[in-house]
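Example 4.3 (complexes with small molecules)
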Amino acid sequence: MHRPIFEQVCVIGLGLIGASFAQAIKDNGLSERLVAVDSHAPSITEAIEHGLLDAGSANLQDVISGSDLIIIAVPVQAVQAVFVDIKQAMDNGQLAADCILTDVCSTKVNIIDAAKAVFGSLPVGLVPAHPIAGAENSGYHARRASLFVNHSVIICELATTSNVAITKLRLLWESVGANVISMDAGHHDRILAHTSHLPHLLAFNLVEQLASHDDNLDIFRYAAGGFRDFTRIAASDPKMWHDIFFANKSAIVSALDEYGVYLQTMRQLIIDKDSTALMGLLGRAQAARRHFGHMLASTPYTDTSAMSASYNITPSNTVSGTIAIPGDKSISHRSIMLGSLATGVTHVTGFLEGEDALATLQAFRDMGVTIEGPDNGNLTIHGVGMNGLKPSKTPLYMGNSGTSMRLLSGILAAQSFDSVLTGDTSLNKRPMERVAAPLRTMGAVIQSTGHSGTAPLSITGRDTAGKPLQGTEYNMPVASAQVKSCLLLAGLWAEGTTTVTQPEISRDHTERMLSAFGYPVIVEGNRISVTGGGTLTGGDIAVPADISSAAFFMVGAAISQNSELTLTQVGINPTRTGVIDILKLMNADISLSNEAHVGGEPVADITIRSSNLVGIEIPEHLVPLAIDEFPVLFVAASCAKGRTVLTGAKELRVKESDRIAVMAEGLQTLGIDCTVTDDGLIIEGKGTATENGDINNSQPVFGGGHIVSHHDHRIAMSFSVASLRAAEQITIEGVETVNTSFPGFAELANQIGMSIQVDTDAE
Ligand code: S3P
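Answer. The structure with shikimate-3-phosphate bound is encoded below.
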C-alpha cells in the first residue's frame, strides 16, 4: 500500500484501460476517493457495488467536483467533447484551474490540439500520456490491476505543464508498476504509426483482400498459421481503429507510403528473380527480428536495462568431461568484416552466435551485404568487394561490443558515405578516442559525440570529407589489438603505407586473416604494416573454439577436486595463450594434445586437472596475452596458496566494466582478502594444499553471497566458477550479457558437474 497522492481521482470511461487504472489506483491506495463517469450504467453500478468507486454517473457534472486528477479514458475522437465538459466544470468552480488532466489515448498530437481548441491556451495541469498495455478482451469486466506492471507509459511533458502535475502523474504511474518514459508528442505519434497503427492497418487490409475473393471460403478454410498470426489483430475494435487512423492521419500516411516503397522493391526482386538481393532482404529482416526478439518478447518500450537474469548456483566441487567450447569471438568478428569486403563467397564454420559477433553481422547486413545463416555456426557471406558497402539507413547498433565498434570505425572512416555507430549503455561509456584520434591523423573525419570521447560516433564519408585517407605511422600507447586492427583496416583504403607499432604483442587475428584473404601484411617484430589499394579474396574460414571462453572451465577444473576436463580444438594462437602460461606458472596441471592448424590459426585439445595452485607475480608481458582472462584468473589466485600480484593491467579498468574494481568487490563479498592498486590487484590466496598435499581434498575458500556482475559477461562467468570452491550458494545478478560471448554457458557448466540455475525476470 502507498500513501494517497490524490484526494479524488475521476476516471472518465470505464473500458479496459480506464477500469484497470482505477482498480490499480484503488488496490494501491493512491487516492482518497475514486469516482467515474461512463454512459454504460451497469458498469458504474457494478463498480460501486464492487467497492471500486465511491461515486459514479453518466454525467460528468454529477461527480467531478473536487477532483484533483482527471483520467480521460475514452476513444480518441471523444476526447474533445470531454474537454468541453471539463472546461465548463472549471468555469463554474467545480474544478480548480490547476487540476491535473491526463488521458490514455494512443495518439498524442490530436489530444493537444483538442485541448487548445477548447481551452484556448493549454491548461497547466495537462499531461498527455499513453500506457503501452492492452489485452485481447475489452470492457470493464476485463480489467486487471496488474495490467501496467512492467509496461511502459509514455508521457508528454509539455512546456506549459506545471512541474507538480508532471511529478505527481509520474509517481502515480510508477506506483502502479509502470516504467515512465518522456517523449515529445510528435515523436510518439510517428513511432506508434510504425509500430502499432501500420500493422493493424495491414492486418485489416489483408483480411479484407482475402475475404473479397470469390473463393474466400476456401481461402479461410485452408488458411495456414501465417495468416492467423498475421491477422490476429484485425479482430480488434473497428471503431477504435477508425478513430486512431484519422487522429494520427499524417504519420500513418507517411508510414504507409514508406511501406509501399518497400513492397514495390520486393515485388521487383521477385519479378527479376534476383535471388541474392531477395535472400539479403529476407535474411536482414529475419536477423533483425531475432535481434530484437528479446525486446519484442518483453513489453514494448520497457527499459531493457531493467530486464535481467540471474544465476543461482549451488556449490559443487568437481568437474569432468570432454566438451566443445563455442567459436572464438575475435575471429568471428573478423570473418564477417573481411568476408563482406572480399570478392567472392566466404563460407564460415564454427562462427560464434553470441550477441557481440551478431552485432557485427547485422551491421554488414545493414550495409547491404547478403549473409546467409548463421545456421549452427555456418555462414555464407556474399562479399561485395572493397568498394561495395552501402550506407546504412539507420545508425549501426553495436550492442555491447567494443570490438565491433572499434574495428568498424576504421573501415567506415574510409568509406565514401557517412555513418553513425552506437551501442548499449555500457559500450557508450567506453573510450573511443583511442581509435578516433589516430584515425584523424590519417585524415578521417570522426566525432565522438558522447560525453568524454565516447560513442555515438559520427563518421563523415570521403565523398564529403575529401581525399582518401593517408597512410600513417602510429605508435600505440597501449597494446590494444582493437586499436591496431582499426588502423590496419583503415589502411586498406589509405594512400601509401600504414604502420602500427605496439608496445607489447597483442592478438594478431587481423593480420593472420588478412593474409589468409590474400592481402599482404608485413610484420617486423612489434611493427605491422599494410599498404592501401589491395583486394581481399573470399574463401573458407574455420573458427576455432574461444580460449577466452575455455578459460572459465580451465580454472574450474584446476581449482576443484577429482577433476579432469578436456576442451576440444581450442584456438592456441600464441598471442592468446597468456592464460595457459599464467596457470602453468601457478603450477596448474595442463597439457595440450591433437595440435593442428585450422584456417591459419593453431588449435589443440586442452586437458586440465585438479591442481595445487600457488600464488605468483604475473609477468607484465603476459598481460595483453591474457587480457580477457584476468577475472577468472583472480578466482584461480583466490584458491592458490600465497599471494598473487597483478601489475601493468590498467586496461582492465576500461573493459565491459572496471574489471579490477568489480572483481575486487565480488571477491571481498565472498570473503577474499584483496587490495586494489592503480594498475592491478593483489590477492591473498586461501589455498592450503602444498605441492605434496592432497589436491583432492580441497576446502572451500569462498563463502556464499550475492554478486553484482555490472552487466559484464566475464564477471558473471568468473564468479560462477568460484562456486566450485564455495561453502554456500552464490547468486549472480545481471547475467544476461553472458550471451554476448558464451551462449549456452550455464548448460555446458551443468553438463560437466556444476549446478547453475538461471532465473529470468523479464516477461
Ligand atoms: C579484442 C581485443 C581485446 C579484447 C577484446 C577483443 C579483439 O581488446 O579485450 O575482448 O577482438 O581485438 P583490446 O585490444 O582493446 O585490449
